[in-house]
Amino acid sequence: MDKQELVVRALHTTQGDGQDVYAFFIRGGDIVRIADISRIERDEHDVVKGFQRPEIQQHVKGIADYLDQGKVLFPNSIILAMSPEVRFTASRGTRPNGDEGVGQTGTLTIPIFEAGNRVAWIVDGQQRSLALSRSTNQSFPVPVVAFVSDSLEVQREQFVLVNKAKPLPRRLIDELLPETRNILLPRDLRKRKAPSELCNWLNRNSKSPFYNLIKRPSDKKDDGAPVVTDTAVVEMIRQSLSNPLGALAPYKPTDTEPGDVDAMCTILVTYWSAVRDVFPDAWGKDPRQSRLMHSAGILAMGVLMDRIYARLTGANESYAAVRKEVEKVAPFCRWTSGVWESIGLRWNDIESTSQDKKRLQEALVRAYITEARK
Q1: pLDDT band at residue 51, thresholds of 50, 70 and 90?
Q2: Are residues 110 and 229 both part of a single domain?
């Protein structure tokens, strides 16, 4: 059987460190013939694979219905990553007068392989691409911008950057950030990367009390073990890093320094191991059974972590010393039953609202300060 190829007229330029970039038009139905959708998941070694969120069926159907109306305008471009297997042949002839030489016209030859082994991957526009493949108008011309790179790290980086300003799930970006190159990320994403990396480490390291307990977008729906949302853990870490008096703040990365990751991991493991051991009946349970594992509980205990470490220094930051401090609030906590007397709420009435989170944080801090003064 002869090798199948798709040949299109294209405009070529380079960006970055000589990276090839192409712009061309293609029939909508051909996009899924040349490009795979790289779904985010983890392999048997717990390594992140892919980057795309699941298909949104209603969204895809809505786009397909629009395309099926007939003579519609749909100029939205698809962004692809392509392997170096594509071939570009520049057009011959002299350049037109006034041509600034930014781009070069020619012919782009794209091999067509079976699904799972295709020469391109969709970086932006998976829902549109699926809709185009299901539309009755398979020949609808669609603009495409493609960069050549078979590096999954580069593809993830571009995916995060392209979708940063769109309503992309924050959890998906947070899970992908540890797999990207820090130096090329915008400042706001660089700030989010450290908490995401620490959350990832806590979930994957067997020494961590959070080992395999954190829910991530790559988890399969039938995975029953994770009980804590990664959003709660990431936010807990972020608040400690951004608080000048936070437990993690002295070790956070800066624009010029990478930060002391080992020190931050040690603090998190020491403190949260103490929390687990002080509240064994509340640890590792579904948030519906234990508010300690609820986002409100994780954030409140994170605030308490900063308070405790503000009182402890040097040798006093041992597990035994930290556990002794956590035990001071134990009599006041109602994680699985009873009523929080200081705020007048039953244990399971605490929700993920800003008001409830703040009230719980204040209740724990008040209890700790009162006991610490004795």
Answers
A1: very low
A2: no
Question: Do 199 and 74 fall into the same domain?
Answer: no
- The last residue of one of the domains, among 98, 129, 163, is 163
Q: Tokens standing for 354?
A: 């800003």
**207 and 135 housed in the same domain:** no
Q: Are residues 353 and 205 in the same domain?
A: yes
More confident residue, 59 or 312: 312
Domain that holds residue 36: 5-163
* pLDDT at position 214: 92
Name the domain count of the chain.
Answer: 2
Tell me: do 294 and 181 sit in the same domain: yes
Same domain, 196 and 331: yes
Same-domain pairing of 142 and 279:
no
Q: Token pair for residue 208?
A: 């961590």
Is 58 found in the same domain as 199?
no
Query: Quick check: 151 pLDDT over 50?
Result: yes
Place of tokens 């040798």: 315
